[in-house]
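Standup notes
- DV: blocked on the single-chain target, sequence here:
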Amino acid sequence: MSDFEVSDASKVSSELSPWPVSRLSATLKDWIDRLGYLWIEGELASIKIGPSNMFGELRDLQQENSVSIHSWSVAKIPADLKQGDRVLALIKPAFWPKGGKLTMQVVEMRKVGLGELLERIERLRTQLTLEGLTAIERKRPLPFLPQKIGLITGKDSDAEKDVLQNAKLRWPEVQFRVIHTLVQGDKAAPEVIAAIQTLDADPEVDVIIIARGGGSFLDLMVFSDENLVRAAANAKTPIVSAIGHENDRPVLDDVADLRASTPTDAAKRVVPDVEDERHKLSQSLQRIRLRVADYVTSQAALISQLRSRPILANPHSFIETQEVELARWLEAIRDRLSQTLEREELGLGHLRQQVRSLSPQSTLDRGYSVVRDAEGRVIADASKVTAGTKLKVRLAKGELAVTADAKTTSSK
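- DV (later): unblocked, structure below
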């Protein structure tokens, strides 16, 4: 019923002008008839098929809701239907004004088979892949040592025992927050979704394990529920899928951050083995010790080699060697200097002898003299000297002052 129709009905029905029951029934019938034929899906809560009719109750797959169904023709209704079967039904809703009863007349009914379920699962898997929810890049790494592990599983199930026991055997101090839910059936998906959201909101939970110990394909259908799978994909906490079914892989395995083959495998993948880690630590410490010992040994050998070298064995040998070498060079310099001085002294003697032989003094020593006028000019030409000129005569030893008294002609 639209808002317009509701408001329109309120105009004609009031406290002062109420509708008769027949009009209400007729109006309801008219509205319901407008729905026409509908395909619906659900689980048969009960069913009774006779030769020419069928009566039963169809229950919603996830919520507490059911409707009565009937059919006056069983031609298009499988005869092997039974309680608990999942079916698709083409119905025509009808309201009977006389008794005020709403019925669902079944025109056709089909059992939802494995082929159709598998096709739905593959369509969902393809859709999630297109959205990127199954991409490897989205997979978050698990913490090395989780502070607390969230576990979603059935109450008192073997899966719960396997996870708890194997985890505590590997790391006795490990802590869990366990939420028990249904793990199969139509009511399981909402419970698992609520558990995922609760654990994801807990800041102490570092990883969430969803565990079930295998089962038939139909038993595992809950873990291919689109709402459940999307809740797992949207969780911020890493999720481990441990459904334990190799052949029929549920869609949850595709979006989970890690797929474990069994609940036991999930415990081993999530919790490190304390003994194994201690062994690894011991091996690492041993390798460190060996590396340090090898390094110290090699450095000690290098220092020993350096100390065995002459320069380090006797540091003064370098000085002594240089001292001897310096003395040798000093002696060579002295010899070279002495030879140079002797050679230069001899050459100087020769030069001195030459200078003496060419000196005016040696000429004077042979009896010659040098005559100069009063100004000190040498007189070399007697014709330039007049009588009475004062002259100075330089002898080999001493000097005479004379006066020219006559001029003679020089001979040639």
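- Follow-up: Residues 315-358 form the longest helix (44 residues).
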